[in-house]
Amino acid sequence: MSAPIPEPKIFPCKQSKELAQNIANAFGIPLGKIITSTYSDGEFQPSFEESVRGSRVFIIGSTFPNSDHLMEMLLMLDAAKRASARHITAVLPYFGWARQDRKDKPRVPIAAKLVAKMLETAGATRIITMDLHADQIQGFFEKPVDHLFASTIFLPYLKSLNLDNLTIASPDMGGSKRAYAYSKALESDVVICYKQRAKANVISHMELIGDVQGKNVVLVDDMVDTAGTLAKAADLMMERGALSVRAICTHPILSGNAYERIENSKLEELIVTDSIPLRQSSPKIRVLTCANLFADVMLSVNANKSISSKFLM
């Protein structure tokens, strides 16, 4: 008689421990035991403090910089592989280094492809992530990728606001597909911002394509980093006669002076998920948890059930 298959196990990377705990609570099992030893020079070693032999292991961690977060995920994947885990799923609520998804000038890396290969080489047999910066990053993997959309979280919240004359806006041309998907679900108009950058994170010029006069505008993007684009777009739209401007951004990177820019902008509200923990609180920032979405998908993956109902876009 064959031995029973062990129960699934969930382990957190330290940068996503609170989110991992919420996911584990929704999944219905406790977090697995793990300790991390750190050497004096900063090198660290994670260690599973319970057997994972034959188990389906979920390792949860967003890989936003600094690079230690990615390195921790890689080390934990390698440890699970060498401990004979049956399936090893890397759960990356935020897939970092994704903005380098192509060569936009000579002699530069394609970091997203490199990270995909590193995750697979380390031992990941499946990837679960949310709102990739570019959909085609899924094709960088040879292993199955479950690409979730935060629209399943944001759309119910937007509908609860009961905003009249709602208009969805994309902060750049690249996000137009996402904006159109939201507008279709909400039966609203769409406007697009056209921006030119002097260099990374620095906007030299922005124009608005479409009419926002008398509209309640919701900007939609996959991430907010320095918040320069959002602040500039919100100010431009209010100048053009918008009644209010909100923003929905899945991943709150919020680096540099982002918090100050949001506070000083004409944005009424910034709605984000907890894929990345906030460095500080702000009265203008509302956080919606993605824990239930990931737990539901992980339960379906564990039971070999379809997850197509989780995709609204």
From TrEMBL:
Q: Which domain of life is it from?
A: Bacteria
Catalyzed reactions per annotation: D-ribose 5-phosphate + ATP = 5-phospho-alpha-D-ribose 1-diphosphate + AMP + H(+)
Q: Which GO terms describe its cellular component?
A: cytoplasm; ribose phosphate diphosphokinase complex
Q: Which keywords accompany this UniProt record?
A: ATP-binding, Kinase, Magnesium, Metal-binding, Nucleotide biosynthesis, Nucleotide-binding, Transferase
Q: Does the entry feature the keyword Nucleotide-binding, yes or no?
A: yes
Q: Part of which pathway?
A: Metabolic intermediate biosynthesis; 5-phospho-alpha-D-ribose 1-diphosphate biosynthesis; 5-phospho-alpha-D-ribose 1-diphosphate from D-ribose 5-phosphate (route I): step 1/1
Q: Which Pfam family is one of those matched by this entry?
A: Pribosyl_synth
Q: What cofactors does the UniProt entry give for this protein?
A: Mg(2+)
Gene Ontology BP annotations: 5-phosphoribose 1-diphosphate biosynthetic process; purine nucleotide biosynthetic process; ribonucleoside monophosphate biosynthetic process
Q: Kindly give the InterPro entries that the UniProt entry links to this protein.
A: PRib_PP_synth_CS (IPR000842), Pribosyltran_N (IPR029099), PRTase-like (IPR029057), PRTase_dom (IPR000836), Rib-P_diPkinase (IPR005946)
The record's CDD domains line, in alphabetical order, gives:
PRTases_typeI
- Domain (Ribose-phosphate pyrophosphokinase N-terminal): give its ranges: 9-123
Q: What is its EC number?
A: 2.7.6.1
Cited SMART domains: Pribosyltran_N
Q: Does the keyword Flavoprotein apply?
A: no
Task: Please list the GO terms describing molecular function.
Answer: ATP binding; kinase activity; magnesium ion binding; ribose phosphate diphosphokinase activity
Role, per record: Involved in the biosynthesis of the central metabolite phospho-alpha-D-ribosyl-1-pyrophosphate (PRPP) via the transfer of pyrophosphoryl group from ATP to 1-hydroxyl of ribose-5-phosphate (Rib-5-P).
The record's NCBIfam families line, in alphabetical order, gives: PRK01259.1, ribP_PPkin
The text of the family note is:
Belongs to the ribose-phosphate pyrophosphokinase family. Class I subfamily.
Q: What is this protein called?
A: Ribose-phosphate pyrophosphokinase
What organism does this protein naturally occur in? Pukyongia salina
